[in-house]
Amino acid sequence: MEDYYNFGKRQYPTLNYRPDPLQFLVDDLPWVVLALAGMLFGGLQVPWLHDLILFLSGFLALHLLYKYLLMRQAVYIITDEILAWHHGIIERSVEYIELYRIIDYRERHTFMQQLFGLKTVIIYSGDRTMPQLKIPGITTDCNLVETIRERVEYNRTRKPIYEISNR
């Protein structure tokens, strides 16, 4: 996938980011515990209740598996000129943001993310189709905002394109 974006001479290498697998636990730990508890201990004394709880726990486990696979399939590619987000399982989609359109950045560290050493980087852009992009599951030692900021400045000086915004 990296060669797809490398046309012409590059100032910066193409970077690929995937959410850390621990981000799944950050997002869905209570549901994982509930599904496991339902499968192990649910309604042991009453047969019909046991079957119902087992069915609901299995359905929840399948839903959680789908969410995990969806998160693991997401990849964020940053080149000299664009930020691309590849996502989806059954239907794959790619969203693009031109780097010169990025307006602002934000890092968010929830309590659970702090426990696992993760953060979410939020990018605000002047793009009409995707004004905000969240990149979850980035390790705290990764300085993604500085990397994107450097490339945004490079693009703004290389392409004298100015956007007027009333935000």
Radius of gyration: 20 Å
Total strands: 7
Oligomer: single chain
Task: Provide the structure class.
Answer: alpha+beta
* Model regions low in confidence, pLDDT < 50 over at least 5 residues: none
> Beta-strand level of the residues, as a percent range?
25-35%
Describe the global form. Answer: elongated
How is the largest sheet built, in terms of strand order?
1-2-3-4
Helix amount: 40-55%
Distance from first to last alpha carbon: 35 Å
H/E series, N to C? HEHHEEEEHEEH
Largest sheet: 4 strands, antiparallel
- Count of DSSP helices? 5
Mean pLDDT: 89
Would you kindly provide a brief summary of this structure?
It is built from 5 helices and 7 strands, in the order αβααββββαββα. By secondary structure, the protein is α+β, with helices and mostly antiparallel strands.
For the structure shown, list the relevant keywords.
167 residues, three-stranded antiparallel β-sheet, elongated
Summarize the SSE layout with pairings.
Blueprint lengths: L1 H4 L9 E3 L4 H20 L5 H27 L1 E4 L3 E6 L5 E6 L3 E7 L2 H6 L1 E8 L6 E8 L4 H15 L9
Antiparallel strand pairs: 1-2, 2-3, 3-4, 5-6, 6-7
Structure description:
With 167 residues, this protein is α+β, with helices and mostly antiparallel strands. It has five helices and seven strands. It has a four-stranded antiparallel beta sheet with strand order 1-2-3-4. It is elongated.
